[in-house]
Design goal:
Layout lengths: L26 H14 L5 H75 L2 H20 L2 E3 L3 E3 L1
Antiparallel strand pairs: 1-2
Helix pairs in contact: 1-2
Length: about 150
């Protein structure tokens, strides 16, 4: 019998806004004043207008710097991806070559042993030895120890 737990509702997403400490606290007021003056059709005094323009330029400069940083990051990421692909390709080729060599060597050794056993009429003895080795290897591989929270065996 399976446990059927009641469906749980996902928790509500909580938005957290962190204030940007780099921006002065008066900026929202200045920008709001500029917007209000523009909507009312009035003109701000020269000092406030200059401060608003300076802040807008600072924001534009920061946005441009961030865009340039992002483009540099994209180029660097693309270069790293190309290097990773090249390295994986090389290692895969080397691994395939070495693996094929090991398999070929193992096949050659089995061929030599089988021909030597046939020449010496030891085939039944080697067959029994191979079965015993396979059984021991199977028992050894089958009892691996797995530690999760408590100790238990597969």
């Amino acid at each position: 019998m399976s446990k059927r737990l009641p469906a749980q509702r996902p928790t509500a997403v909580r938005y957290v806004a962190y204030p940007d400490v780099a921006t002065p606290q008066q900026d929202p007021v200045l920008l709001a004043a500029a917007i209000a003056a523009a909507q009312a059709g009035t003109v701000l005094d020269a000092e406030t207008a200059a401060r608003v323009q300076r802040r807008v330029r600072q924001l534009d400069d920061r946005e441009e710097r961030q865009r340039q940083d992002y483009l540099r990051w994209l180029e660097r990421r693309a270069e790293l991806d190309r290097q990773d692909r090249r390295t994986r390709s090389l290692l895969l080729g080397v691994g395939a070559t070495v693996g094929l060599g090991v398999l070929g060597g193992a096949a050659y050794v089995v061929w030599l042993v089988s021909h030597a056993a046939a020449a010496l009429a030891l085939a039944p003895v080697l067959g029994v030895v191979a079965l015993v080795l396979l059984a021991v290897a199977g028992v050894r591989v089958g009892s691996r120890c797995v530690t999760v929270i408590s100790h238990w065996h597969e």
